[in-house]
């Protein structure tokens, strides 16, 4: 009898264990193949900054979420500052979200064998497309959990789940402003509709939501207190300046209906199928089913909206298995034959295979889709911290050895200079590799996005911030690694106040004359 209980216990948790290992190691594998310097090293250096006691928004200008810098610092503390620790971080998050997706499918009523398949497809398309920790993915991670907890609350008739929704929103927002804010609008819509659908019964969710909001505000207060982040700096950089970037994108984007439909055709097809199920149910009494389906539809719309207005590569194709699994659960409520289910399954299998090859195998997100990845070499040639990383970038697609040679030369020059200096580069592993601090003015160096140019709002505030940090750290010297003549430092400090000298093939040295009349 005892043996039978053990077997049943083992069978119950076996799918979760298998899925957990698969979703972890698939991201771990692809996280070591190729890099996009501007994107993949930003948070790596962010974690290193935190370990060295530097404070976001005070010591460096930041327009993306500070939470990931602290999370990376935690993983670096546990396992050292290295690429393996970095990829363990993103792999663990891929594992967690895939397991909870499986539990959602099972809770909806989908058989375990199908739940595991859809969850595996989800795991393939969620974090492995980028591999490394990424602000959009982490913000999306917490946002998905908000919608999942809404579903759990409905299915289990436990309002306690709603207490976590405000806290998860805070975590999503501290990862990145969007899609968190879009998600807040979406979840507010869902809660409002849910309340008015049966106010007398559903008003009970307000108590845990209010309690969760109070707890979340308290957490936010503790976060600012213990991290010593200046709230005014946070507000200016993360909210006011970041808002101007969003305003520019909204005002300049031209909606292309056919292009958008073509780009996300599989998502839209499944969204139409799921919406048709909802339409047929809207006058029924199956409230749980109605709000579960509406929940997934709103989540899909929110993330598609975010993807359309973001400048990053496409990453929302994990919605396909989520939509397909939801259709699988409820298709019988609207369709009499299995054709719709078969059609849905075929779309899910085909699109998962397609985007797996494009984004995971060919590393499209990292601009490596047309690069021969077999030419990659072990990044241990650069530093032991990057051991195991198969180094190849879009900058030197045919000759990664040349890129490493140039970087090693630049690193050698920097290491010999014992003075305080600012290092501006997309290769933001250099400071940690040399065991120094780079005093970089920004978290990352994307002109007009990560910091304002002269014709943008908040440029004066940004320039004053940068100069204040130069003076505070007694810095008169800037090293900038760039393969062209478009130097970041010249967008911040007037050229008349800079004396530049090419010191290697890819690096230029700038001496700052603080007595220059155009310096301020």
Walk me through the structure.
By secondary structure, this protein is mainly alpha-helical. It has two domains: 2-30 and 61-366, no CATH class; 394-512, no CATH class. It contains 21 helices and six strands. It has helices spanning 2-30, 37-40, 42-51, 67-79, 83-108, 112-125, 135-156, 164-175, 177-197, 199-202, 206-227, 231-252, 257-263, 265-281, 287-309, 319-330, 339-361, 400-416, 430-434, 459-472, 489-492, and strands at residues 377-378, 390-391, 422-424, 477-481, 498-502, 507-512. A hairpin with a 4-residue loop joins β5 (498-502) and β6. It is globular. The model has no long low-confidence stretch (mean pLDDT 93).
Care to give the gist of this entry?
With 520 residues, this protein is mostly helical. It has helices at residues 2-30, 37-40, 42-51, 67-79, 83-108, 112-125, 135-156, 164-175, 177-197, 199-202, 206-227, 231-252, 257-263, 265-281, 287-309, 319-330, 339-361, 400-416, 430-434, 459-472, 489-492; strands at 377-378, 390-391, 422-424, 477-481, 498-502, 507-512. Helix 6 runs parallel beside helix 17 and helix 9 (177-197) packs antiparallel against helix 15 (287-309).
Shape, principal axes of CA atoms: globular
Give the tally of structural domains. 2
Quaternary: single chain
Strand order of the largest sheet: 3-4-6-5
Uncertain segments of ≥5 residues (pLDDT<50)? none
In round numbers, the mean pLDDT is 93
The total count of helices amounts to: 21
Structural class: mainly alpha
Determine Rg (CA atoms, Å): 25 Å
Summarize the main sheet.
4 strands, mixed
- Give the DSSP E fraction (strand runs of 2 or more residues): under 5%
Order of SSEs: HHHHHHHHHHHHHHHHHEEHEHHEHEE
